[in-house]
Amino acid sequence: MFATYLIGLREGLEATLVVSILVAFLVKSQRRDRLPQVWAGVGLAVALSVLFGSLIQYTSTSLLRTSESRELFEAVTSVAAVVFVTWMIFWMRRAARTIAGELRGKLTDALAVGSLAVAGMAFLAVIREGLETALIFYAAAESAAGGTGPGALLALAGGIATAVVIGFLLYRSAVRINLSRFFTWTGALLILVAAGILKYGVHDFQEAGVLPGLNDLAFDISGTLDPSSWYGALLAGMFNVTAAPTVLELIAWVAYAVPVLALFLRRPGRPAKPVDPAQPVDPAQRAEPVPADVAAVSSPRG
User: Fold this and answer.
1) Rounded to an integer, what distance in angstroms lies between the CA atom of residue 28 and that of residue 41?
2) Which residues of the chain, if any, have pLDDT below 70?
3) Are the C-beta atoms of residues 167 and 119 closer than 8 Å to each other?
4) How many angstroms from the chain centroid is the CA of residue 230?
5) Nearest alpha carbon to residue 295 among 157, 117, 100
6) Which pTM does this prediction carry?
7) Which of 22, 104, 202, 265 has the fewest CB atoms found within 10 Å of its own CB?
8) Looking at residue 51, what is its pLDDT?
């Protein structure tokens, strides 16, 4: 259940930070009268995200009649979830330094238009996180042994609740954390979770008959890694590490996890730009970007 908790924590904190930035900006700008529109947009985004998640679950359990069609549906959603996870963690790493300024600029434009624009802006800022959470949660929960049962839902809700508490404390300046480091560590863990989801998707494609090699095992270490043991269940639940994967499953896991982790953790150096002494240097070019930490969320008391 740790994987679903991590998904709720990561996605929930991203959404909470977005809402905190919007609320803090309105409070500091003496525009508290627009807060109901922000909360209305956030509420609609949450409701549609829950509806989207329910629709995915209903499609899998009720609309699809044959086991092959269900396996194919789960395989496709798994691949889609991996794409969203990968895009999300790299986008957040790139946008963390500028997201606060961009949101404030968009909210300023929305305030000039009217109430519906404010609600729409808040809705669009949160709905992406909500739809991603629903899709990734379904894929991660299905890849684990428990499926999308009460335990997985509780783990997701616990992660979201933790994120809301952290976001509120950040907003009130009651706690300070290095968000850049937080998103780096959780991003690395989510890459391993996504590798497990992709492995599960490949297995579903094999069971649906789309890919061959269902009975071609890469290895079998069931005698060492007991699937019924606590550590076997933990590895399977978190990263879908199993004792007897097929050759294609193992290839998919390694082919995704190794290069994506390397790219994500790589810190490219900035090439030095030659300076012409005859040309004046713009002071703005000397400024270093602000670290992606709690400075992005300004408390209304500041």
Assistant:
1) 20
2) 1, 144-149, 174-175, 267-302
3) no
4) 26
5) 100
6) 0.79
7) 265
8) 96
Residue 193 in tokens: 């979770």
Tokens of 35: 């807060």
Phi, psi of 129 (to 5 degrees): -65, -40
217 strand-pairing partners: 246
Q: CB of 79 within 8 A of CB of 198?
A: yes
Separation CA 19–CA 38 (nearest Å): 8
pLDDT, residue 139, reads 87
Would you say 193 and 7 are in contact if contact means Cβ atoms under 8 Å apart?
yes
Give the separation between CA 293 and CA 176, rounded to whole angstroms. Answer: 8
pLDDT in tens, 101-138: 888 888 888 888 888 888 998 899 899 889 988 888 88
Query: Of 203, 129, 123, 188, which Cα lies nearest the Cα of 159?
Result: 129
